Amino acid sequence: MHPLGRRFVLATVAAVAGVAVTVSLGNWQLSRAAQKEAIHDAIARRRAEPMLDGRSLAALPPPERTVPAAAAVPPAASPAPSADTAGAAAREALVYRRIALRGTWLPQHTVYLDNRQMDGRPGFFVVTPLQIDPGVAVLVQRGWVPRNFQDRTRLPPVETPTGPVEIEGRIAEAPSKLFSFAGGDPGQGSSRIRQNLDLADYRHETGVPLVSLSVLQTGAPGEGLQRRWPEIASGVEKHYGYAFQWFGLAALIATLYVWYQLVRRFVSPRRRTRS
Known about the structure:
This protein has 5 helices and 8 strands. It has a 5-stranded mixed β-barrel. It is elongated and about 90 Å long.
């Protein structure tokens, strides 16, 4: 048997492993915080760049078309995805940029996205296509309206100006999707109130030539809509907090090991012997 005792060896191995694991997890949390800080800084830089106009969206590659399974190209003959990759990169480079648009609303295609909150209150996000060129339209998330709790189908009045309009906003991905059960969301075209909106399906349903990005309209409240869009939080405080907990646990393991396995085992007996 080891001269220091099997229990001491096991305690040493467990302490070293515990400290190594907790320090590693703490460093991982610091790395995640650094990544999120970098993303947050990149978003801030994009928002500070000069404002774009509708030509930036009109110049995007056309949306990918869904190919029926029967007409799909065999894998061996599939073309390289360079065009799709370039299109995705071009769209990603525009997200979070400020933009000014001039066009005409298509109010007949307005949709109310249900169960969306603003300032903690439930309601609807109102989205309407804006025709910015004869062959180009963009889906605009115009703002938020409160929900009628007595009758969900009673929609609050939203004014949609006719003729050319000018708006400002931020380029964004398609409206976020919420969880819904299969068949729980009204079908295409059956209701103006929907839980989610798939951009490709909506494009096919309406026939509107929508680009594959949307715009969050900003500015003062108007037309019956609120536009206090939530800011994107970096979330680094959470990761720093977790890192502190992991490093604290590592320090606790080391302290307990030193006290119980070193001080009490070696230092205290010597002091008692001398006394």
